[in-house]
Amino acid sequence: MKIISLDETVSLKRAIDQGTENQRKSVERILEGVKTGGDQAVRHYTAEFDGVDLSDPAVTAEEIAAAYERTDQETIDVIREAIANVDAFHKRQIQQSWFASEENGTILGQKVIPLDAAGVYVPGGRAAYPSSIIMNVVPALAAGVERIVMVSPPLEDGSLPDIVLVTANELGVTDIRKIGGAQAVAALAYGTETLPAVDKITGPGNIFVALAKQLVFGTVDIDMIAGPSEIVILADETGKPDYIAADLLSQAEHDPMSSAILVTTEKDLAEQVSSEVSRQLETLPKEEIAAASIRDHGAIYTAASEAEAIDAINRLAGEHLELHVRDPWAVLPKIRHAGAIFLGENSSEPVGDYFAGPNHVLPTNGTARFSSPLNVEDFTKKSSIISYSRQALEENGAKIAGFARLEALEAHARAVEIRMEDSNGKTDSNENTENE
């Protein structure tokens, strides 16, 4: 790995793949096709792009039962334990509605309401991603979303991987569709004859899925536009070179665009980690991908002091941040920007990816400066509650009308004053209710 003296230019920023003009036009064509053509268009695009002709893409109970028969019990038990961990973590995030009253009869509050429906996109292809299902579905369930639709591109035989079906079933997802790509995003966003539209779409996918999510945003909400995966490690003299190298490579194997960075005050450690990365790469199954990531987007930065190193960590605002330092809890308060923070040498990034409980859908490309991991709040919305009594209106009405006139909104002012001028002494509905 490159070893570089730290300077002010350190950054994780990489050009995010925005797709080619032809790809964007293709996605726009698919979205419009599904918007106007519904189920028939979805079947057409599934046959065109996935090579599968499905008259009904809905997964059946028989398919799920067969998936369980082919899945060993140990795997099912691990999935169940991971779900329990993630569920317990996200239930701590649940927000409650609240109300506050004043002596003059004013009642203000906030009503927290779950979304009606969410769509979860699960990538397909050669690999299956049960962890992605868990991380996207659990916060929606904890929020109280009543209808969750899962979509995933079918395999060549028109099926979905067994572990995908088992994981979805363990979560209680009953509406599973064998559709993928931009056509799946369009179906979720606009709805079809057999698939009512959802309110939010989450989950990763290829460039066509990413473009489709960008284009339907506004019709529905989406989780985020995620860039390639990244890891940043802060290490002092206590850091173990083999541990650090393994963790850097755990992200580098994702994608040639993935970024793996070490920041350390120890030049000897920097040299040792660089050598260890080269050694471990030789036996890595995805050596070519990881090597490209390390070569093009990996680096070891040496800092003159801990303060300089932490400043760089905050400027990087990494998706995953590991603290391989003597006292990670002492360093934690100094960290302002990171998607997920892993404290100590035993808290390797994959612990959070799969099992510990926090969500692994994280802000990338420096966006941890202003955004957060996927969470329960992402599947809720809030309504403000305002209830003014007659007394409160009389106390504040003139001020409100005056404020309206500051903005030259006379009708706003009159809407308040007409109530203040009411000489009948009418009481508001809350007071009437209390007197009944």
Structure explained in plain terms:
The protein has three domains: 144 residues, Nitrogenase molybdenum iron protein domain (Rossmann fold, 3-Layer(aba) Sandwich); 202 residues, Rossmann fold (3-Layer(aba) Sandwich); 45 residues, no CATH class. The protein is globular. Helices cover 45% and strands 15% of the residues. The C terminus is likely disordered. It is α/β, with parallel strands linked by helices and 436 residues long.
Can you describe this structure in just a few lines?
The chain has helices spanning 21-50, 61-69, 73-91, 130-143, 162-170, 181-190, 207-216, 241-252, 267-281, 287-297, 306-316, 328-331, 349-354, 390-406, 410-420, 429-435; strands at 3-5, 98-101, 107-114, 117-121, 147-151, 175-177, 200-202, 221-222, 230-235, 259-264, 298-302, 320-324, 340-343, 380-387. The chain is α/β, with parallel strands linked by helices. Catalyzes the sequential NAD-dependent oxidations of L-histidinol to L-histidinaldehyde and then to L-histidine.
Layout of helices and strands, plus pairs?
Elements: E1 3-5, H1 21-50, H2 61-69, H3 73-91, E2 98-101, E3 107-114, E4 117-121, H4 130-143, E5 147-151, H5 162-170, E6 175-177, H6 181-190, E7 200-202, H7 207-216, E8 221-222, E9 230-235, H8 241-252, E10 259-264, H9 267-281, H10 287-297, E11 298-302, H11 306-316, E12 320-324, H12 328-331, E13 340-343, H13 349-354, E14 380-387, H14 390-406, H15 410-420, H16 429-435
Parallel strand pairs: 1-11, 4-5, 4-7, 5-6, 7-8, 9-10, 9-12, 10-11, 12-13
Antiparallel strand pairs: 2-3, 3-14
